[in-house]
Amino acid sequence: MRENWTSKAGFILAATGSAVGLGNLWKFPYTVGMNGGGAFVLIYLFLVFVIGIPLMLTAITLGRKTQLSVYGAYKSIDRRWTFVGALGVICSFIVLAFYSTVGGWTLYYFKTALLGDLVTTDSEALQKIFHDLMTSPGNLIFYQTIFLLATALIVLKGIQQGIEKYSKWMMSSLFILLLMITVRSLTLPGSMEGIKYLFIPDFSMVTPTVLKNALGQMFFSLSIGMGSMITYGSYLSKKINLLHSAVMIPILDTSVALIAGLAIIPAVFAFGFEPSEGPSLMFITLPAVFASMPMGNLFAILFFILVIFAAITSSISMLEIAVSYFVDERKTSRNHATIITTSIIYVLGIPASLSLSGYYPINVGHLSLFDLYDQLSSNILLTTGAFFMTIFVGWVLKPKNAIAEIESSSIHFRLAPIWSVLVRYVLPIAILTILIESYRNFFQALFH
Ligand code: PHE
To answer: Are 193 and 372 in contact (CB under 8 A)?
Structure first.
């Protein structure tokens, strides 16, 4: 018997846990910063509603219909499409390899905050903390290992006792912590600049690259395109209302991304940092914010706990893709599957961590291994996976069969005709158009 979530709320929290992660707290704010601010945010919101929500529905429906891992889901409907499932499993290894690198950084920052060494407004000192970590192979490896072990331990316990249980309490505490920190950031002098930057669009900044980045960011943040949502959907009972979940998860995820933007970007302005700083933004600017508030050290500790929770509830959903493949298709036990998959990720992930340190620069073309994994996953693999998924559901499974699955929990899907047109025509064309730009950009970054 396949395990099920204990309730709809349990599923929504686990799936939101998958969606809300480093993508929201770490990537979203700096991606907004690197792509010009308000216009990017607006495009992002538009994409969530037009592409994200319909595809979220597509993914969880596919999972619940087949009750199989992403690999089995495609294979059981049409063997010729098994490659898309295989792509998802491969992608989960690559994404987790770099995700766990950053997961390790958050653990290190948590420790630094605990020791009271993090909180200062001296931007040089903050840059030094980040730089010291990047050039310390021992620390990078140690913390990445701990992060992966924690992920594996939760997945090992299964759906109800592992993923659902931990997602529930981690996500609930995350919401509370995030609100506390945002209120503080918004009441800093100078934060108005940041709010303007986030919400007042300047359309002269919009280029095809910005569009491509917004789409990639959206798939990454919603965990769509490699099978997390298909896998989580496969543990749903037939009673659950899929429509409600498909709307709730993206709304919660997007709210957290915006709140994270509100917590981080105004502070960036208030302290005179650059919003286009890049991946180090969260690590370098936020401690300065904490330094300026009463009980700042406590807030810093709480914040990094929050980031760790968010990251782990996402990384377990990545690992579960691969674990469920081994359990369903290779008939291994969950324990074995977890050990095999975690080991593979470890072998891929350690070099990614090290590729950033000055001692072991590992480059592929012009990209460090870390950047290669990062760009490959958000800009290429997830978007490609999402593209195949719409074609598959639109033309192979056919919307009418998906709609029957959605309506099997005695609900009426009023927007079914619109959704069918989206899945068959609009989304594949839209995604493909942007995907071409993504491939062009990717190869350019790699070779030029
Ligand atoms: N959505 C997660 C985040 O925002 C990352 C993720 C991507 C998780 C793909 C699962 C699958 O951090």
So the answer is: no
Q: What is the CA radius of gyration of the chain?
A: 21
Q: How many other CB atoms are found less than 10 A from the CB of residue 212?
A: 23
pLDDT at 15: 95
Name the stretches of the chain with pLDDT < 50. none
Question: What is the distance of C-alpha 71 from the center of its chain?
Answer: 20
Contacts of the segment 331-337: beta carbons below 8 A, 24+ positions apart: 334/155, 334/156, 334/158, 335/156
Ligand 1 centroid, distance to 116 Cα (angstroms): 30
- Site to probe by mutation for ligand 1, drawn from 48, 102, 226, 228 as the one with most ligand atoms within 8 Å of Cβ, is 228
pTM over 0.90: yes
Residues with Cβ within 8 Å of 420's Cβ and at least 6 positions away in sequence, in order, are 394, 399, 400, 403
Structure tokens at 134: 């990047």
Per-residue pLDDT at 359: 66
Predicted local confidence at residue 358, as pLDDT: 65
DSSP 3-state of 236: coil
Per the rule left: phi > 0, alpha: psi between -120 and 50, beta: everything else, 227 is left
Structure tokens at 246: 């498909």
Side-chain-side CA neighbours of 236 within 13 Å: the count stands at 33
Ligand 1: lining residues by beta carbon, under 6 Å: 18-19, 21-24, 95, 220-221, 223, 226, 228, 314, 317-318
Closest CA to 337 of 349, 347, 327: 327
The residue whose CB lies within 8 Å of the most ligand 1 atoms, and thus the one to mutate among 215, 314, 319, is: 314
Ligand 1 centroid to Cα of residue 222, in Å, is: 6
Tell me the CA–centroid distance for residue 436 and ligand 1, in Å.
22
CA of 182 to the centre of ligand 1 (A): 22
Specify the pairing of strand 363-364 against strand 367-368: antiparallel
Pocket-testing residue among 24, 221, 249, 306, ligand 1, by greatest number of atoms within 8 A of Cβ? 221
